[in-house]
Design goal:
The protein is 30% helix and 17% strand. The chain is an alpha/beta fold.
Length: 488
Protein backbone atom coordinates (compact mmCIF):
# COMPACT_ATOMS: atom_id res chain seq x y z
CA UNK A 1 0.00 0.00 0.00
CA UNK A 2 1.41 3.37 -1.07
CA UNK A 3 1.14 6.27 1.37
CA UNK A 4 0.08 9.51 -0.29
CA UNK A 5 2.20 12.63 0.32
CA UNK A 6 0.91 14.63 3.29
CA UNK A 7 2.49 18.00 2.58
CA UNK A 8 2.74 20.36 -0.40
CA UNK A 9 6.49 19.87 -0.67
CA UNK A 10 6.17 16.09 -0.64
CA UNK A 11 3.68 16.30 -3.49
CA UNK A 12 5.99 18.57 -5.47
CA UNK A 13 8.97 16.30 -4.81
CA UNK A 14 6.93 13.39 -6.13
CA UNK A 15 6.09 15.34 -9.30
CA UNK A 16 9.75 16.07 -10.03
CA UNK A 17 10.88 12.60 -8.89
CA UNK A 18 13.03 13.88 -6.06
CA UNK A 19 13.83 11.44 -3.29
CA UNK A 20 16.18 13.25 -0.92
CA UNK A 21 19.15 11.53 0.62
CA UNK A 22 19.11 11.16 4.39
CA UNK A 23 21.34 14.23 4.77
CA UNK A 24 19.23 16.31 2.36
CA UNK A 25 16.02 15.28 4.13
CA UNK A 26 17.36 16.57 7.45
CA UNK A 27 17.96 19.97 5.86
CA UNK A 28 14.54 19.99 4.19
CA UNK A 29 12.97 19.58 7.63
CA UNK A 30 14.21 23.01 8.71
CA UNK A 31 12.06 26.06 8.07
CA UNK A 32 14.37 28.64 9.59
CA UNK A 33 14.76 31.93 7.74
CA UNK A 34 18.51 31.59 7.19
CA UNK A 35 20.17 28.27 6.36
CA UNK A 36 23.87 27.68 5.80
CA UNK A 37 25.13 24.43 4.31
CA UNK A 38 28.80 23.49 4.08
CA UNK A 39 28.97 20.84 1.40
CA UNK A 40 31.52 18.46 0.02
CA UNK A 41 32.33 18.17 -3.66
CA UNK A 42 29.66 16.19 -5.54
CA UNK A 43 27.49 16.14 -2.41
CA UNK A 44 24.32 17.29 -4.19
CA UNK A 45 24.38 20.96 -3.12
CA UNK A 46 22.78 22.27 -6.33
CA UNK A 47 19.97 19.71 -6.16
CA UNK A 48 19.43 20.61 -2.53
CA UNK A 49 19.15 24.33 -3.36
CA UNK A 50 16.64 23.80 -6.16
CA UNK A 51 14.47 21.49 -4.04
CA UNK A 52 14.65 23.78 -1.02
CA UNK A 53 13.25 26.52 -3.29
CA UNK A 54 10.58 24.11 -4.51
CA UNK A 55 9.62 23.48 -0.88
CA UNK A 56 9.36 27.14 0.11
CA UNK A 57 7.71 29.04 -2.72
CA UNK A 58 4.16 27.56 -2.32
CA UNK A 59 4.06 28.84 1.26
CA UNK A 60 5.32 32.25 0.13
CA UNK A 61 2.60 32.23 -2.52
CA UNK A 62 -0.09 31.54 0.05
CA UNK A 63 1.15 34.06 2.62
CA UNK A 64 2.72 36.89 0.59
CA UNK A 65 1.31 36.98 -2.94
CA UNK A 66 -1.11 39.90 -3.38
CA UNK A 67 -2.40 38.87 -6.79
CA UNK A 68 -0.57 41.70 -8.51
CA UNK A 69 3.17 41.93 -7.99
CA UNK A 70 5.12 38.72 -8.59
CA UNK A 71 7.11 37.01 -5.90
CA UNK A 72 10.79 37.68 -6.50
CA UNK A 73 13.72 35.34 -5.87
CA UNK A 74 17.44 35.62 -6.51
CA UNK A 75 20.11 33.11 -7.45
CA UNK A 76 23.40 34.74 -6.39
CA UNK A 77 26.93 33.56 -7.16
CA UNK A 78 30.45 34.94 -7.26
CA UNK A 79 29.78 35.13 -11.00
CA UNK A 80 26.95 34.04 -13.27
CA UNK A 81 28.47 30.63 -14.01
CA UNK A 82 28.24 29.77 -10.31
CA UNK A 83 24.43 29.63 -10.48
CA UNK A 84 24.05 27.62 -13.71
CA UNK A 85 23.28 24.22 -12.15
CA UNK A 86 20.68 25.61 -9.76
CA UNK A 87 19.13 27.66 -12.59
CA UNK A 88 18.83 24.59 -14.82
CA UNK A 89 17.39 22.41 -12.03
CA UNK A 90 14.71 24.97 -11.13
CA UNK A 91 13.77 25.50 -14.79
CA UNK A 92 13.45 21.74 -15.33
CA UNK A 93 11.32 21.35 -12.19
CA UNK A 94 8.96 24.11 -13.30
CA UNK A 95 8.61 22.59 -16.78
CA UNK A 96 7.70 19.24 -15.21
CA UNK A 97 5.11 20.74 -12.88
CA UNK A 98 3.52 23.51 -14.97
CA UNK A 99 4.33 22.70 -18.60
CA UNK A 100 6.20 24.64 -21.26
CA UNK A 101 3.39 27.11 -21.92
CA UNK A 102 3.41 28.54 -18.41
CA UNK A 103 7.15 28.86 -17.84
CA UNK A 104 9.52 31.30 -19.51
CA UNK A 105 13.27 30.69 -19.23
CA UNK A 106 15.78 33.14 -20.62
CA UNK A 107 18.44 31.89 -23.00
CA UNK A 108 21.08 33.99 -21.27
CA UNK A 109 22.35 33.54 -17.78
CA UNK A 110 24.16 36.88 -17.41
CA UNK A 111 21.64 37.97 -16.26
CA UNK A 112 18.91 35.40 -16.62
CA UNK A 113 15.42 34.78 -15.34
CA UNK A 114 12.78 32.10 -14.89
CA UNK A 115 9.16 33.32 -14.87
CA UNK A 116 5.97 31.39 -14.09
CA UNK A 117 2.37 32.30 -14.97
CA UNK A 118 -0.60 30.30 -13.64
CA UNK A 119 -3.38 29.38 -16.06
CA UNK A 120 -6.70 31.18 -15.50
CA UNK A 121 -9.99 29.32 -15.63
CA UNK A 122 -10.65 30.67 -19.14
CA UNK A 123 -7.31 29.44 -20.42
CA UNK A 124 -5.60 32.82 -20.40
CA UNK A 125 -2.75 33.92 -18.18
CA UNK A 126 -2.28 37.15 -16.19
CA UNK A 127 -0.28 40.04 -17.60
CA UNK A 128 2.32 39.70 -14.85
CA UNK A 129 3.98 36.46 -13.82
CA UNK A 130 3.38 35.04 -10.36
CA UNK A 131 7.01 34.11 -9.71
CA UNK A 132 10.28 35.50 -11.07
CA UNK A 133 13.70 34.02 -10.30
CA UNK A 134 16.61 36.28 -11.30
CA UNK A 135 20.32 35.49 -11.51
CA UNK A 136 22.77 37.86 -9.84
CA UNK A 137 26.55 38.17 -9.89
CA UNK A 138 28.39 39.37 -6.78
CA UNK A 139 30.69 41.30 -9.13
CA UNK A 140 27.79 43.63 -9.93
CA UNK A 141 27.36 45.07 -6.45
CA UNK A 142 24.82 47.72 -7.42
CA UNK A 143 22.34 45.05 -8.49
CA UNK A 144 22.52 43.47 -5.04
CA UNK A 145 21.30 46.70 -3.50
CA UNK A 146 18.10 46.83 -5.55
CA UNK A 147 14.76 45.26 -4.59
CA UNK A 148 13.95 43.07 -1.61
CA UNK A 149 13.44 39.47 -2.75
CA UNK A 150 11.17 37.01 -0.99
CA UNK A 151 14.00 34.51 -1.00
CA UNK A 152 17.70 34.44 -1.90
CA UNK A 153 19.81 31.43 -2.80
CA UNK A 154 23.58 31.98 -2.58
CA UNK A 155 25.21 29.33 -4.77
CA UNK A 156 28.80 28.30 -3.96
CA UNK A 157 28.60 30.81 -1.15
CA UNK A 158 32.07 29.79 0.05
CA UNK A 159 33.51 31.53 -3.01
CA UNK A 160 31.68 34.80 -2.28
CA UNK A 161 32.88 37.56 0.01
CA UNK A 162 31.51 38.30 3.45
CA UNK A 163 30.22 41.61 2.07
CA UNK A 164 28.10 39.70 -0.45
CA UNK A 165 26.60 37.66 2.38
CA UNK A 166 25.83 40.84 4.33
CA UNK A 167 24.05 42.40 1.37
CA UNK A 168 22.03 39.27 0.69
CA UNK A 169 21.09 38.86 4.33
CA UNK A 170 19.96 42.47 4.58
CA UNK A 171 17.92 42.24 1.36
CA UNK A 172 16.17 39.08 2.53
CA UNK A 173 15.22 40.69 5.84
CA UNK A 174 13.75 43.81 4.21
CA UNK A 175 10.96 41.67 2.77
CA UNK A 176 10.73 39.21 5.67
CA UNK A 177 12.17 36.68 3.25
CA UNK A 178 14.57 33.75 3.59
CA UNK A 179 18.22 33.13 2.73
CA UNK A 180 19.77 29.80 1.77
CA UNK A 181 23.54 29.49 1.43
CA UNK A 182 25.24 26.37 0.10
CA UNK A 183 28.87 25.97 -0.82
CA UNK A 184 32.16 24.17 -0.59
CA UNK A 185 34.66 25.63 1.86
CA UNK A 186 37.38 27.79 0.34
CA UNK A 187 40.70 28.88 1.86
CA UNK A 188 40.34 32.24 0.12
CA UNK A 189 37.07 33.03 1.95
CA UNK A 190 37.37 31.53 5.45
CA UNK A 191 34.41 33.55 6.74
CA UNK A 192 32.01 30.90 5.43
CA UNK A 193 33.46 28.04 7.44
CA UNK A 194 33.88 30.20 10.51
CA UNK A 195 30.29 31.42 10.29
CA UNK A 196 29.22 27.80 9.97
CA UNK A 197 31.17 26.86 13.09
CA UNK A 198 29.46 29.57 15.09
CA UNK A 199 26.02 28.58 13.81
CA UNK A 200 26.53 24.86 14.47
CA UNK A 201 26.69 25.78 18.16
CA UNK A 202 23.88 28.30 18.24
CA UNK A 203 20.26 27.64 19.01
CA UNK A 204 18.89 30.71 17.30
CA UNK A 205 15.23 30.70 16.25
CA UNK A 206 15.96 32.14 12.80
CA UNK A 207 19.15 30.44 11.57
CA UNK A 208 20.76 27.03 11.32
CA UNK A 209 23.84 25.42 9.80
CA UNK A 210 24.21 21.94 8.29
CA UNK A 211 26.91 19.78 6.72
CA UNK A 212 26.28 17.91 3.49
CA UNK A 213 29.35 15.75 2.97
CA UNK A 214 30.36 13.95 -0.20
CA UNK A 215 29.78 10.51 1.30
CA UNK A 216 26.12 11.37 1.97
CA UNK A 217 25.36 11.41 -1.77
CA UNK A 218 24.38 7.77 -2.07
CA UNK A 219 23.19 8.32 -5.64
CA UNK A 220 26.79 8.86 -6.77
CA UNK A 221 28.44 6.81 -4.01
CA UNK A 222 26.09 3.93 -3.06
CA UNK A 223 28.45 2.69 -0.35
CA UNK A 224 28.97 6.15 1.14
CA UNK A 225 32.49 6.68 2.45
CA UNK A 226 33.28 3.04 1.71
CA UNK A 227 32.56 3.52 -1.99
CA UNK A 228 35.65 2.46 -4.01
CA UNK A 229 35.64 5.63 -6.12
CA UNK A 230 35.47 7.85 -3.06
CA UNK A 231 38.12 5.86 -1.23
CA UNK A 232 40.39 6.34 -4.24
CA UNK A 233 39.90 10.11 -4.09
CA UNK A 234 40.68 10.12 -0.37
CA UNK A 235 43.83 8.04 -0.74
CA UNK A 236 45.29 10.56 -3.18
CA UNK A 237 44.57 13.76 -1.25
CA UNK A 238 45.70 15.39 1.99
CA UNK A 239 43.82 15.27 5.27
CA UNK A 240 43.14 18.99 4.94
CA UNK A 241 41.56 18.49 1.51
CA UNK A 242 39.43 15.58 2.74
CA UNK A 243 38.26 17.44 5.81
CA UNK A 244 37.45 20.69 4.05
CA UNK A 245 36.54 19.79 0.48
CA UNK A 246 34.85 16.41 0.98
CA UNK A 247 33.52 16.42 4.53
CA UNK A 248 32.56 20.10 4.61
CA UNK A 249 34.29 20.62 7.95
CA UNK A 250 35.97 24.02 8.42
CA UNK A 251 39.76 23.92 8.81
CA UNK A 252 41.49 26.83 10.57
CA UNK A 253 43.41 29.28 8.36
CA UNK A 254 47.13 28.66 8.13
CA UNK A 255 49.55 30.56 10.33
CA UNK A 256 47.37 30.83 13.44
CA UNK A 257 49.29 30.98 16.69
CA UNK A 258 46.86 28.50 18.25
CA UNK A 259 45.71 26.83 15.03
CA UNK A 260 46.68 23.32 16.15
CA UNK A 261 45.45 23.81 19.70
CA UNK A 262 41.99 25.36 19.39
CA UNK A 263 38.92 23.43 18.29
CA UNK A 264 35.36 24.73 18.31
CA UNK A 265 34.04 21.26 19.16
CA UNK A 266 36.39 21.01 22.16
CA UNK A 267 36.62 24.56 23.48
CA UNK A 268 33.33 26.29 22.67
CA UNK A 269 30.19 25.30 24.54
CA UNK A 270 26.96 26.85 25.75
CA UNK A 271 27.70 25.18 29.09
CA UNK A 272 30.28 27.92 29.66
CA UNK A 273 27.68 30.10 31.30
CA UNK A 274 27.45 32.60 34.13
CA UNK A 275 26.62 30.99 37.49
CA UNK A 276 24.91 33.60 39.62
CA UNK A 277 26.39 33.98 43.06
CA UNK A 278 29.76 32.46 42.07
CA UNK A 279 32.88 34.59 42.04
CA UNK A 280 33.64 36.29 38.75
CA UNK A 281 37.23 36.92 37.71
CA UNK A 282 38.15 39.59 35.18
CA UNK A 283 41.00 39.37 32.68
CA UNK A 284 41.76 42.79 31.20
CA UNK A 285 43.88 44.04 28.32
CA UNK A 286 43.33 47.79 27.88
CA UNK A 287 43.35 49.24 24.39
CA UNK A 288 41.70 51.86 22.24
CA UNK A 289 42.08 51.75 18.45
CA UNK A 290 42.65 48.00 18.44
CA UNK A 291 40.36 46.67 21.15
CA UNK A 292 39.74 46.94 24.87
CA UNK A 293 39.15 43.41 26.17
CA UNK A 294 37.56 42.45 29.47
CA UNK A 295 36.96 38.72 29.83
CA UNK A 296 34.52 37.55 32.52
CA UNK A 297 35.37 34.12 33.92
CA UNK A 298 34.62 31.55 36.59
CA UNK A 299 37.19 29.11 37.94
CA UNK A 300 35.70 25.73 38.80
CA UNK A 301 37.93 22.76 39.66
CA UNK A 302 40.93 24.48 38.07
CA UNK A 303 39.01 24.98 34.81
CA UNK A 304 38.65 28.52 33.46
CA UNK A 305 35.09 29.17 32.26
CA UNK A 306 35.04 32.20 29.93
CA UNK A 307 31.34 33.03 29.84
CA UNK A 308 31.21 36.68 28.71
CA UNK A 309 33.30 39.53 27.38
CA UNK A 310 33.32 43.27 26.92
CA UNK A 311 35.19 43.71 23.65
CA UNK A 312 35.02 47.28 22.42
CA UNK A 313 36.88 49.72 20.21
CA UNK A 314 37.54 53.45 20.61
CA UNK A 315 36.33 53.56 24.22
CA UNK A 316 38.29 54.67 27.29
CA UNK A 317 38.53 52.82 30.58
CA UNK A 318 35.75 54.75 32.33
CA UNK A 319 33.37 53.87 29.50
CA UNK A 320 34.39 50.21 29.63
CA UNK A 321 33.75 50.16 33.38
CA UNK A 322 30.28 51.64 32.81
CA UNK A 323 29.49 48.79 30.41
CA UNK A 324 30.77 46.21 32.89
CA UNK A 325 28.61 47.66 35.65
CA UNK A 326 25.51 47.00 33.57
CA UNK A 327 26.28 43.29 33.32
CA UNK A 328 24.37 40.78 35.44
CA UNK A 329 27.65 39.33 36.68
CA UNK A 330 29.12 42.61 37.98
CA UNK A 331 27.92 42.15 41.60
CA UNK A 332 29.88 38.87 41.73
CA UNK A 333 33.19 40.51 40.82
CA UNK A 334 35.40 40.56 43.94
CA UNK A 335 37.20 43.81 44.88
CA UNK A 336 40.41 42.05 43.85
CA UNK A 337 39.05 41.41 40.38
CA UNK A 338 41.73 39.45 38.55
CA UNK A 339 44.64 40.30 36.25
CA UNK A 340 45.51 43.17 33.93
CA UNK A 341 48.32 44.14 31.57
CA UNK A 342 51.33 45.39 33.52
CA UNK A 343 51.28 48.54 31.36
CA UNK A 344 48.05 49.49 33.11
CA UNK A 345 50.19 50.78 35.99
CA UNK A 346 52.03 53.27 33.82
CA UNK A 347 51.37 57.00 33.59
CA UNK A 348 51.06 58.20 29.98
CA UNK A 349 49.85 61.79 30.46
CA UNK A 350 46.65 60.28 31.91
CA UNK A 351 45.81 58.40 35.09
CA UNK A 352 47.04 54.80 34.91
CA UNK A 353 44.33 52.40 33.76
CA UNK A 354 44.64 50.36 36.96
CA UNK A 355 43.98 53.49 39.03
CA UNK A 356 40.85 54.29 36.99
CA UNK A 357 39.50 50.83 37.79
CA UNK A 358 40.39 51.26 41.47
CA UNK A 359 38.92 54.77 41.66
CA UNK A 360 35.60 53.86 40.07
CA UNK A 361 32.49 53.80 42.25
CA UNK A 362 32.97 50.14 43.15
CA UNK A 363 36.74 50.05 42.69
CA UNK A 364 38.54 46.91 41.56
CA UNK A 365 42.20 46.04 41.94
CA UNK A 366 44.18 43.70 39.72
CA UNK A 367 47.35 41.68 39.67
CA UNK A 368 49.65 43.23 37.08
CA UNK A 369 52.89 41.45 36.30
CA UNK A 370 55.08 41.15 33.24
CA UNK A 371 54.35 38.06 31.14
CA UNK A 372 56.82 37.15 28.39
CA UNK A 373 55.22 36.25 25.07
CA UNK A 374 56.55 32.72 24.64
CA UNK A 375 56.08 31.40 28.21
CA UNK A 376 52.64 33.02 28.27
CA UNK A 377 51.69 31.47 24.93
CA UNK A 378 52.84 28.07 26.13
CA UNK A 379 50.81 28.41 29.33
CA UNK A 380 47.63 29.21 27.42
CA UNK A 381 48.41 26.34 25.07
CA UNK A 382 48.62 24.00 28.08
CA UNK A 383 45.13 25.12 29.13
CA UNK A 384 43.76 24.42 25.65
CA UNK A 385 45.15 20.88 25.67
CA UNK A 386 42.45 18.31 26.58
CA UNK A 387 43.11 16.04 29.57
CA UNK A 388 44.21 12.58 28.35
CA UNK A 389 41.49 10.82 30.35
CA UNK A 390 38.55 13.22 30.58
CA UNK A 391 39.25 14.85 27.18
CA UNK A 392 38.23 18.15 28.78
CA UNK A 393 40.45 21.22 28.36
CA UNK A 394 41.25 23.56 31.24
CA UNK A 395 39.60 26.49 29.45
CA UNK A 396 36.27 26.70 27.63
CA UNK A 397 34.41 29.58 25.98
CA UNK A 398 30.81 30.61 25.57
CA UNK A 399 29.90 30.97 21.85
CA UNK A 400 28.77 34.53 22.56
CA UNK A 401 32.37 35.62 23.17
CA UNK A 402 32.84 36.78 19.59
CA UNK A 403 35.93 38.91 20.22
CA UNK A 404 38.16 36.19 21.63
CA UNK A 405 36.81 33.63 19.15
CA UNK A 406 37.74 35.95 16.29
CA UNK A 407 41.31 36.07 17.65
CA UNK A 408 41.45 32.27 17.63
CA UNK A 409 40.32 32.33 13.98
CA UNK A 410 36.83 30.93 14.59
CA UNK A 411 34.77 33.86 13.38
CA UNK A 412 35.09 37.30 11.84
CA UNK A 413 36.40 40.33 13.70
CA UNK A 414 33.36 41.93 15.38
CA UNK A 415 34.39 45.45 14.33
CA UNK A 416 34.72 45.04 10.56
CA UNK A 417 33.49 41.48 9.84
CA UNK A 418 36.84 40.50 8.31
CA UNK A 419 38.91 37.46 9.25
CA UNK A 420 41.62 38.86 11.55
CA UNK A 421 43.05 36.15 13.82
CA UNK A 422 46.22 36.16 15.92
CA UNK A 423 48.94 35.00 13.50
CA UNK A 424 52.60 34.23 13.11
CA UNK A 425 54.60 36.27 10.60
CA UNK A 426 55.11 33.93 7.67
CA UNK A 427 56.78 34.04 4.27
CA UNK A 428 54.87 33.04 1.14
CA UNK A 429 56.25 29.50 1.47
CA UNK A 430 54.82 29.21 4.99
CA UNK A 431 58.12 29.57 6.82
CA UNK A 432 58.33 31.60 10.01
CA UNK A 433 60.05 34.96 9.55
CA UNK A 434 59.92 36.35 13.08
CA UNK A 435 60.52 34.85 16.54
CA UNK A 436 57.28 36.38 17.83
CA UNK A 437 53.71 36.48 16.50
CA UNK A 438 52.27 39.65 15.01
CA UNK A 439 51.20 41.77 17.97
CA UNK A 440 47.69 42.42 16.66
CA UNK A 441 44.27 40.85 17.13
CA UNK A 442 45.30 39.26 20.41
CA UNK A 443 43.80 41.52 23.09
CA UNK A 444 41.47 38.96 24.65
CA UNK A 445 44.10 36.22 24.33
CA UNK A 446 46.63 38.37 26.18
CA UNK A 447 44.10 39.22 28.87
CA UNK A 448 43.38 35.54 29.52
CA UNK A 449 47.10 34.77 29.57
CA UNK A 450 47.61 37.36 32.32
CA UNK A 451 44.85 35.76 34.41
CA UNK A 452 46.10 32.20 33.88
CA UNK A 453 49.66 33.11 34.88
CA UNK A 454 48.42 35.11 37.87
CA UNK A 455 46.20 32.31 39.18
CA UNK A 456 48.08 29.19 38.12
CA UNK A 457 51.65 30.28 37.39
CA UNK A 458 53.74 29.09 34.46
CA UNK A 459 53.65 25.49 33.29
CA UNK A 460 57.45 25.15 33.50
CA UNK A 461 60.55 27.22 32.82
CA UNK A 462 60.76 27.70 29.08
CA UNK A 463 63.18 29.43 26.76
CA UNK A 464 62.04 32.59 25.03
CA UNK A 465 64.13 31.70 22.00
CA UNK A 466 62.33 30.48 18.89
CA UNK A 467 64.08 28.97 15.90
CA UNK A 468 63.26 30.80 12.69
CA UNK A 469 63.49 29.21 9.27
CA UNK A 470 64.70 32.28 7.40
CA UNK A 471 67.45 32.94 9.92
CA UNK A 472 68.64 29.35 10.36
CA UNK A 473 68.10 28.32 6.76
CA UNK A 474 66.75 24.97 7.81
CA UNK A 475 63.36 23.63 8.80
CA UNK A 476 62.17 25.04 12.12
CA UNK A 477 61.26 22.77 14.99
CA UNK A 478 58.94 25.33 16.52
CA UNK A 479 55.61 23.60 17.26
CA UNK A 480 53.63 26.11 15.22
CA UNK A 481 55.49 25.01 12.09
CA UNK A 482 54.86 21.28 12.39
CA UNK A 483 52.40 19.97 9.79
CA UNK A 484 48.86 20.89 10.77
CA UNK A 485 46.85 18.24 12.56
CA UNK A 486 43.27 18.08 11.33
CA UNK A 487 40.46 16.84 13.54
CA UNK A 488 38.21 14.71 11.36
Amino acid sequence: MTTEPQTAEQLLYQQVEHTPTEAQAAIHESWKETLLVTGGEQAGKSVLTSKEFLKRWPYDLEEKYDGEEPLLYWLVGADYNAVKKEFDYIATDFYKIFGLANVEVSKRLDPGHISFWPVNDDGTRPLKPTIIIETKSAKEEAKLRADAPNGIMMCEAGACSYETYERCFARSRYSDGWLLMTGTLEDSQPWYGQLAQAWYLSDEPDREAFRLDTGSNTYLFPDGWDDPNLRSVMSNNSDRYITQRLKGVPVPPKGLVFGQDFSVATHVTTNAAYARGQRVWLAVDPGYAGAYAVMACHIFNDQLIVFDEVYEQNLVTSQIIDICKQKDWWPDVHPHAGAIDVAAKQHQALSPVAEVWADSETGKTFTAEHVDIHPGTERLRSFLKPHPLTRQPKIVFNPGCKGVLSEFGVTVNPFDNVIRPYRWQQASDGSLVSPTPIDKYNHAIKALTYLIVAKFGYASPVSSKVKVTRWRKRRSKHPSLVGEKVRL
